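yo, Interferon-related developmental regulator 1 is done. seq:
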Amino acid sequence: MPKPKKRGSNHQRGAGGQPRNVQPFSDEDASIETMSHCSGFSDPASFTEDGPEIDEEATQEDLEYKLKGFIDLTLDKSAKTRQAALESLKSAFSSKILYEFIMERRMTLTDSIERCIKKGKSDEQCAAAGLACLLCVQMGSGIESEEIFKTLGPVLKKIVCDGTASIQARQACATCLGICCFIVTDDITELYSTMECLENIFTKAYQRDRDSNGVSSTHNTVLHVSALLAWTLLLTICPMNEVKKKIETHLHKLPSLLSCDDLNMRIAAGETLALLFELARETDADFFYEDMDLLTEKLRALATDGNKHRAKVDKRKQRSVFRDVLRAVEERDFPTEMVKFGPERMYIDCWVKKQTYETFKEILGSGMQYHLQSNDFLRNVFELGPPVMLDAATLKTMKISRFERQLYNSAAFKARTKARSKCRDKRADVGEFF
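structure:
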């Protein structure tokens, strides 16, 4: 985990209260309004080559002015306005590094998020939980982030365990709880407490097939999936003695989830199994699993599933995932993936790194590449070293002309069309039903 950051310098606050001319945004245009001021920062190549020179300082001031307005609107009486403001802040936080701006307002943001989670309804709670994740991603691992988690952690746990709260809100809070704990927690007691909270949720899926009164219904599956994935993320930073205990507890129970009707649950269970086997073999090179034949038989069936009652897209996704899971369990192999961001490359060569990357990619969306380039915390997590500093001359040499981009895009479009035409050909799907 990264070392704690030093407290940043404070900016002078603008005069007055709420910025002028800031109107409540609708659900549809809230994120668009923010992104129109943020997207240009996500990639140096997004600036036009021959356009007029942009005053970056003025643009930054304009962005901060709007963000201050959104922060004020999180306290609005209208639930729709609060939710729109939360979504706008999420868009900004995922697309640009705003460490100093957030440092000055972290307590205000934390209070707003806490209030929205406690008093808001389902959609507002989901938006607030998502913003809490991005707030911790922006702040990284440090004293300030710990203060945020001390405030929000109990609130998140309460919603996760509240059977009367909406499933969507509990799902979002479970994900948020896992990510925030992963980022900020150096206290091993807090880590174990958070894992126990998540464990109490997803282990209910183990008994679902035997539950005759329908308590563990399919309606709860999305919550179980989120809790399982968040728990798995935290397992990757546990001490090895705790990892061994968790493997002994769950490795023989998780295969039961491979028979779940929900595709996402099957995939989550399969990927968690692959990660557990990877960790088990790291702690013990001679690790032996008693029911290996039965497990590999299940995994092979899922990797070659051709049931007609399942959607073709779902079958392809399932087969792709479980081919990799089967290789990990049976052959101790992992298909290395390469992620490109700017001039850099990152290789994902194990299930632990894959799980971590997929989790943060889900939160940051299209801003993942930008954060991999510029976010000190993420670069520390993936061992990328300090951010690569490129001067204007180097950036200019990296750019290609508009004509070259058009030629490249045209060639790529033709190649995609050709490949998709082959996939649509009925002869390419002959083996689909065998």
